[in-house]
Amino acid sequence: MVAEKLRWGIVGCAGIAIRSVIPGIQQSSRGEVVAIASRDEEKAKQTAEKLGIPKAYGSYEALIADGDIDAVYIPLPNHLHKEWTIRAAEAGKHVLCEKPFALDASEAQEMVDACDRHGVKLAEAFMYRYHPRYSRIKDIIASGEIGTIRGIHGAFTFNNSGNTTNFRNDQSMGGGSIYDIGVYPISAARLLLGREPEAATVHAFFSPEHGGVDMMASGLLEFAGGVGLTFDCAMWAAGRNTLEVLGTDGRIELPSAFVCNPSEPSVFYVTAKGKRREERLDAVNQYSLQADDVAASVLDGAPLSFASSDAIANMRVVDACLESARTRSRVTISNG
């Protein structure tokens, strides 16, 4: 491919696309948004006009058939991720699929296989991983400054309980807090520890007012060596977005662990042997960095920073968490 920039099509007008991902691609070094689709053509046109996107389509089919599009971003409700990832792959489009990647690990495997079969790249849209602070945190851990890791705690909560018609409250569409935001601390623990958990135990509040989905969940993931991730996620609780890594000689605290302001420096704190310091990184747009990573893979042949196989592994953990919450039991995780 000789194009200097990766040409993106957006499959759907979801809020995350409009607020964050489209602006991120537009501000990236190597991406441009050339089209957007909605099943409501007027909505697509209005969104395109608002965001300065050249083309608007009234169907997803029309967008993925557009020969001027190299890659698609899929922010559709969770139960549609598999279908439209595979259909995009069959049309020769590279795919950035919103989290959670799929409804289960089996679906995730089908998606990865389809993209491999058609020779296209596939990435999961965990934007936080592309922020340089996570590389810095991994370096601090590897240096031994905070000693041996004893545990990680992550929290991602918000209150959306008044919006009872939201797809997040529909079990058939992949609703619930574990799917929606629990995936973040799960992914982060796997990233920072560099290995897979062995078992999950999760307790959840399933709300009859919200389609029976888990509106709050608290969990424990067991890693080798006695290390655990404790996490909670909620769609009916006060807002939090934090991560703490606890070592034998210190700890790392991220006050805005997953969502951060792209126009402000990113700050986290390191306490080692009784002394606490601030680590400050320049403002960056993690959505732009995510888009540029995909572009480098497509345009230059560089490996994706996070292989699509990681999405399958993350979904295995999510599967175990959901099974544990529903059965109120400890669930062993099969890795591979």
From TrEMBL:
<comment type="similarity">
    <text>Belongs to the Gfo/Idh/MocA family.</text>
</comment>
<dbReference type="GO" id="GO:0016491">
    <property type="term" value="F:oxidoreductase activity"/>
</dbReference>
<feature type="domain" description="GFO/IDH/MocA-like oxidoreductase">
    <location>
        <begin position="134"/>
        <end position="253"/>
    </location>
</feature>
<dbReference type="InterPro" id="IPR055170">
    <property type="entry name" value="GFO_IDH_MocA-like_dom"/>
</dbReference>
<dbReference type="InterPro" id="IPR050984">
    <property type="entry name" value="Gfo/Idh/MocA_domain"/>
</dbReference>
<dbReference type="InterPro" id="IPR036291">
    <property type="entry name" value="NAD(P)-bd_dom_sf"/>
</dbReference>
<feature type="domain" description="Gfo/Idh/MocA-like oxidoreductase N-terminal">
    <location>
        <begin position="6"/>
        <end position="124"/>
    </location>
</feature>
<keyword id="KW-0560">Oxidoreductase</keyword>
<dbReference type="GO" id="GO:0000166">
    <property type="term" value="F:nucleotide binding"/>
</dbReference>
<dbReference type="Pfam" id="PF22725">
    <property type="entry name" value="GFO_IDH_MocA_C3"/>
</dbReference>
<dbReference type="Pfam" id="PF01408">
    <property type="entry name" value="GFO_IDH_MocA"/>
</dbReference>
<protein>
    <submittedName>
        <fullName>Gfo/Idh/MocA family oxidoreductase</fullName>
    </submittedName>
</protein>
<dbReference type="InterPro" id="IPR000683">
    <property type="entry name" value="Gfo/Idh/MocA-like_OxRdtase_N"/>
</dbReference>
